[in-house]
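Many introductory courses stop at the sequence. We go one step further.
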Amino acid sequence: MTCGTVKIITGDQTLQNVEGNNMKKWKNIGALFFLLTTFTAQTETITGRVFHISDGDTLKILTETNEKIRIRLAGIDTPEKGQPFGREAKQALTVLTLQKKITIDVQTIDRYERTVGLVYVQGLDVNAELVRQGMAWVYRRYTNDERLYALEAKAKKEKRGLWSTNNFIEPWLWRRGERKFK
């Protein structure tokens, strides 16, 4: 059994020579570990009862083990609190989820330590429903879900919710201080 030989040259050249089966085995084990942990994180499911709505795309749940978890709905972005349609988006999320048992398919944890995921109430995709109602934009920076894009296009065409007026600003622009309507 060989331990492997690595010859590293600095400058423009990098790894010059790798010998030995152990080096390849460790690389394969590392790749497998990465895939397994990534796959596991993407398939985690959480259930709980909604006890608080922060805004149109963030809520809090209490799990069966009495853990409080902040949930950010994945792939969508709703108007901010002081923004036109902010209250309506929050109310729509309230009607859909408050005091109801929900299931979250966890996507990730964001920089604010919120659990980001797809939210379901009795099989209804809440993220998609908010887009369908015209209460949310597809958050293009974070999703490529074609179904959401189609729902948004239909809501725009039918002038539902925030699309009923031409005076709107995407929330990600609003948060950066842009306040001029398009």
